[in-house]
Design brief:
Shape: elongated
CATH architecture of the largest domain: 3-Layer(aba) Sandwich
Structural class: alpha/beta
Strand order of the largest sheet: 4-3-5-6-7
Bound molecules: zinc ion
Strand content: 5-15%
Order of helices and strands: HHHEEHEHEHEHEHE
Mean pLDDT: 92
Length: 204
C-alpha cells in the first residue's frame, strides 16, 4: 500500500502506462508537476485535452489533422499525382523533415502483421483504392519500413496496384535505409536520399 495521497498515486499510475516511462520516472514527473506553477500544469492538461478532442484523421490521407484535410493535403503547391505510402503519421513527419518531397502521402495506420492478427482490412487500404480510382495518382511510392512486416505490406500493395491500376507507376524508397531499421528514426539526409533515389518497381 502506498503512503501517497490517492490522487498522487493515481497520477503516478497513469504516467507509468506511457511508453518509456517506468514507475520511477512517473514518480519523478509527478513531483515535478506538484512543484510547478499551477498555470503551467493547467496548460499541459489543456494540451492533452485538445489533442484528444480536436485531432482526427485526414479524410484523404489519414495523417493527423484538425480539420477534414491535413496541412499537407490542403497545400495547393504540392503535386497530387505522386503519393508516398507510409505506415504511421510519425513516418510522414520524418519524411517531411528534409523538406524536399513535394507530393502527397497515404498513411496506412499500421502494417500487415499476420502474427498479431492485423490484415489488410485493418489498414486504410480501402481509402487508398478509392484515391487510385479517382485517377489523379500517377506514381505511388512504397515507403513502408524496411523490415519483414513492412516489406510484406509493400508487396501486398504492389500486387493490388499492378493488378487493378496497371497505369500507375510504382516505386520504392531507395535502400539507404538499413534493413530492419525504421523510417521514424532515420536521419534527414538518409530520408532525402531515399526519396530522391527511389527505384521503380519492375513488373513481375
Ligand atoms: Zn491529408
Amino acid at each position: 500500500m502506498s503512503a501517497y495521497a490517492q490522487c498522487i498515486q493515481d497520477l503516478i499510475s497513469e504516467l507509468s502506462h506511457l511508453p518509456g516511462i517506468g514507475p520511477k520516472s512517473a514518480e519523478r514527473i509527478t513531483f515535478h508537476l506538484l512543484k510547478s506553477r499551477k498555470e503551467d500544469v493547467m496548460r499541459l492538461a489543456q494540451a492533452l485535452q485538445d489533442m484528444k478532442s480536436k485531432v482526427r484523421y485526414c479524410e484523404q490521407c489519414f495523417n493527423l489533422a484538425e480539420e477534414e484535410l491535413c496541412s499537407v493535403c490542403k497545400d495547393a503547391q504540392r503535386d497530387p499525382s505522386v503519393v508516398l505510402v507510409v505506415e504511421q503519421p510519425r513516418d510522414l513527419m520524418a519524411l517531411e523533415n528534409p523538406g524536399t518531397y513535394r507530393g502527397l502521402y497515404h498513411v496506412l495506420l499500421g502494417r500487415i502483421a499476420p502474427l498479431e492478427g492485423i490484415g489488410p482490412d485493418d489498414l486504410t487500404i480501402a481509402g487508398l483504392t478509392t484515391r487510385l480510382q479517382a485517377g489523379t495518382i500517377k506514381e505511388l511510392i512504397l515507403g513502408t519500413n524496411p523490415n519483414v512486416e513492412g516489406d510484406g505490406t509493400a508487396l501486398y500493395i504492389e500486387n493490388l496496384v499492378t493488378s487493378q491500376f496497371p497505369a500507375v507507376q510504382l516505386s520504392r524508397l531507395a535502400r539507404g535505409l538499413p534493413t530492419g531499421s525504421s523510417i521514424e528514426h532515420a536521419n534527414r539526409s538518409i530520408l532525402a536520399d531515399a526519396i530522391s533515389g527511389r527505384q521503380q518497381v519492375k513488373p513481375r
